Structure prediction request, 566 residues.
Amino acid sequence: MRRSRAFIPTTKEAPSDAQLASHIYLSRAGFVSQVASGLYNYMPLGKRVIKKIENIINEEMHFAGAQEVELSFVTPADLWKESGRIEKFGKELLRFHDRKENMFVLGPTHEEMMVDMVRNRVTSYKQLPLNLYQIKTKFRDEARPRFGLMRGREFIMKDGYSFHSSVEDMDREFDAMEAAYKKILTRLGLDFRIVEADSGAIGGSGSKELMVIAGSGEDTIAICDTCEYGANVEAASRSGRTNIPEAPIAEFNKFKTPDVKSIEDLENFFKVDGYYIMKCVAKRAVYEEESEIVLFFIRGCDNLQKVKAQNATGALDIVDVSEEELKELGIVPGFIGPLEQAKAKHVIDIDLKDAKHMICGANEENYHFINVDMSVMDEAYYFDIAEVNEGDACPCCDGKLSFTKGIEVGHIFKLGTTYSSALKAEFLDENGKAQPFVMGTYGMGVSRLVAAIIEQHHDENGCIWTKESSPYMVNIMISNVKDDAQVTLGEELYAQLQKANIEVMLDDRKERFGFKMKDAELIGFPYTIIIGKELENGLVQIFDRRANTKTDIDKNMIFSKIIERI
Ligand code: ATP
Ligand code: MG
Prediction:
């Protein structure tokens, strides 16, 4: 491509709401342009990167035996009613009516559609397994679209669905997809981690997320310093503590604690570690139709994990409550203990099961109980609701957990029969008995990957594309287009590289060298061949964007040298 003909509208200004490097540089370098909140156009450079990612995905899916399909973007609302997800997805579903008043939904994911396509077409175990995928625009009316391509409302996803006659066969395919996803991210040059993920209401053991490691990531992941264990904090677990603080020894008693409410106040008042103080986090659990106040109890040294709390209650959301709302139920904020279950639902963290020497609220203004023995509450509802802390013991080995930030670029999930049962999608097994398909689902955020690559690969001057993701591999810069010798060599190299199937840009614009150089850095071509003044002495330069180095090369050697680098 000749830069003089290319539509690459680079600018000095970043969008006013842009905070992340990827949002700033992808906009400034002319890859994308914003249309409205969460809606983006891909301009030629952006489209090229999307294509690169799609090609890699297609190659690896083909290699793994998956078949590409393309399903309608507009999906009948009836399918969403059949699966029960029309309510669960809530406002993220963009619904509309056609001229005949039929309701439709813009596809945010395609489980229902895929099951609908396969049901009654695949009818025997002999036709299984089957893995179908598509790369397709999705629409989710996200509550807070932000960070450019990272969280759009319209975005591109690779979504795959597999159908099996047994759980064992689904497990095999799940592992194969994990391996394929690993290859895709490795080819894209990304530093990533595959971690255990929350499986939400669907449950089951098999849900993993592919996390690109980046400080700007919205997800916190807990990783072990010794073994391979990694998990989203939403799902991370830990082994029991070994370095347990010294227990406060006292008789069971009710103690006057005037205005001593916070964990910190209690620690100071009783001179005891937060480990022995029972913290109550009061929240409102919001369900499909109603809501209720739930009291979550954890150790004072821990924090409530929201997603775990959601799973413990089956709530769609967990929101704050005011002190007034608590008082209406006769609950005494600041002094809430677990011994009065009639007033509100209790959920107690598993780490508190049979805990001894605990201090907890006495459900009475200005009083706490001391030396509470939780084994009296063996009937209570215990659930893992605490967030792991850095330094906690790894659940798999003797190592310690630490936190890092990640961008979720993929999610693979053992669905089992959730959707096939709901949509009555069945096959006949070897004994002629009808069974629902056992399914897996495999999602990857194609447009989010574009942003993730830049989050991990940029500097203060702009993008630094990895080799397999770059829109062009080589940029040939003619420093002075009035110099015939420079132009001749530039054109020659341009033709040669094109012939060698190298994706090449020829910067033949009548602009200042400094300006063109800044542009090349902003766009992030891996290599720029600079043809400048030194050509009089037979020399040109290779600028390596990642290494940020310029190397003099004999003009007769430039073609072979650049091929060598690529
Ligand atoms: P998140 O927790 O980030 O909202 P999700 O759990 O809703 O993601 P999935 O439903 O598993 O995501 O979708 C599969 C993949 O699609 C995700 O791993 C992510 O890479 C991508 N994705 C999801 N939502 C968006 C979005 N709003 N914009 C861009 N990519 C997205
Ligand atoms: Mg989401």
Remarks:
- Residues 167-187 form the longest helix (21 residues).
